[in-house]
Amino acid sequence: MNTYTAGDITLEQVREYVWEIPQEGDMGTPARVFASEELLEQIADDKTLEQLKNTTHLPGVQKYALCMPDGHQGYGFPVGGVAGIDAENGCISPGAVGYDINCGVRMMRTNLTYDDLRGNEEELVDALFANIPSGLGGGGVVEGDIDAVNDVLDRGMAWALDEGYATEADLAHCEDEGVRQESDPSAVSQKAKDRGKNQLGSLGSGNHFLEVQRVTDVFREDVAEAYGLSEDQIVVLIHCGSRGLGHQVCNDYLRKIEKTHSGLLSKLPDKELAAAPAGSQLAEEYYQAMGAAINFAWVNRQLIMHRTRQVFERVFGQSWEAMEMELLYDVAHNIAKKETHDVNGEEKELFVHRKGATRAFPAGHPEVPGAYLDVGQPIIIPGSMGAGSYVLCGGEESMNLSFGSTAHGAGRVMSRTQAKKDYWGGDVQDELEQEQIYVKAQSGATVAEEAPGVYKDVDEVVKVSDALGIGDKVVRTYPVCNIKG
């Protein structure tokens, strides 16, 4: 059997692309990493494996704690981590969801081709940057009051529909139709609401972006057709989350859990994994508050998409309906949800924590939107702004291997601090423009932090997902214009 040793952790190769940290000591389960040897070396270069091993100490973890092929070190729980935890006798962990609750991606297709757009790249990137709020702090498409924020937290995309920012089709093509029914605005602090009220419809900063892309490769004609995708087509990818509101929700509940459930915390190897026991008041309140923040994030991305449609109308002189600017799908990748999964032959309700991981339900799963039921749920995996992105479909092995999950992106290999030492934003922009990729950001530092060289090879990440059958390649896209905070 092949083994791989990183520090005091040894992994055994179970099969191609599957590596296991055997259960020992106080570990509740083994841990598994889905990776090629090349990716495993990068994953082992920081504290990802240690954090993954620590995750197995959470009460009620089932089968395996998992790390997807884009995994890297996070806050307590690794980014790219997945854990299915018993919803009756286990726990729920805000740290295993992350600070940016429902950070996620949506893709909007169009009937434009790359030839339709060529020559308009600079006008388009300037118009998008001028009209879509980005960067730190406030400012959004909608300047809401607390009543509006409460409505968004309660009703999610249904609010956007009633206010004229969304269509019925937009809701039908969103995970959970854009509404978490278990949400409760009263579980969200006033401080969180105050942070969110002026940020509805804004990208924020860091790795969040809006990118206009062209489809360059089609791998599955049948699924691509079902998704309405074809070669040379222009699509728009939006990546952002719940802004300051979600960050505050996570922070609030981590502090509450540390005070109320210190006994459980003392048994965990890392306090950043702070968790509330299933059935406890804090577990219920966090689940409701998280649901509210999830709703906020879906509305945030919807408002950005609404503004994007308006920008395209001005630049191309057509209505967005004429350009068929329709939502392909919106999927969360920082979330914990009650789902039913097979655990050793028994159907169990679990809190499935996905932190930097994407739901990947296969064809026929009842939670896949009706339009995609025969081919599987769309999965959107962004690469860096100098590389391609991918659309996958939920794979047949995902429910068996990964609690219906796969990777969420390329995954970092370099810290933001190191990136700013190694790259100069202006140089990165110039190099990308030589490749006909037009980037506009609030600062050169942001561009440096997100330079293509700070990310893993997205092709390698997707290769592993496709080979394991947890998310199958459908199309590849390539950047044309990118705006970021």
TrEMBL record:
Residues 177-202 are annotated as: Disordered. Belongs to the RtcB family. It is an enzyme of class 6 (ligase). Binds 2 manganese ions per subunit. The keyword Oxidoreductase does not apply. Mn(2+) 2 binds at H239, H333. GO terms for biological process: tRNA splicing, via endonucleolytic cleavage and ligation. Essential for tRNA splicing and maturation. Acts by directly joining spliced tRNA halves to mature-sized tRNAs. Joins RNA with 2',3'-cyclic-phosphate or 3'-phosphate ends to RNA with 5'-hydroxy ends. Keywords: GTP-binding, Ligase, Manganese, Metal-binding, Nucleotide-binding. Its cofactor is Mn(2+). This is tRNA-splicing ligase RtcB. GMP binds at residues 207-211, 333-334, 382-385, 389, 408-411, 484.
